[in-house]
Amino acid sequence: MTDPNLDAQSQIGEIRERIDAIDCQLVELLNERAQCSLDIRVLKPQARQGLYDPKREEEIFTNVAKCNRGPLYGDDLREIYEAILHVSKEMRG
Fold first, then answer.
1. Mean pLDDT score, 20-48
2. Closest by alpha carbon to 89, among 67, 47, 48, 60?
3. Rounded to whole angstroms, how far apart are CA atoms 16 and 30?
4. What's the mean pLDDT when you consider all of the chain?
5. What is the pLDDT of residues 51-65, one digit of tens each?
6. Cα angle vertex 78, ends 73, 81, to 5°?
7. Across the chain, how many H-helices and E-strands are there?
């Protein structure tokens, strides 16, 4: 007979390992996204576009909402993306 407490602790440990691996993937993807933002920042003057584009931000929010399958709520994702966009604007290129 197995101890349910030990089984739950074991499952928690496994899930935390998955979270750590996912976090590493997120960091890699966020850095890739940040590099894309920096690449666009270099190109915008050549394309005679301003650095801030509120229409593009709304497109990003719309796209993220469309991709969302939960369990995060749309408002949660928007908050996360507002932080990502804020950091992107503050990055030094």
1. 96
2. 60
3. 20
4. 94
5. 889 999 999 999 999
6. 130
7. 3, 0
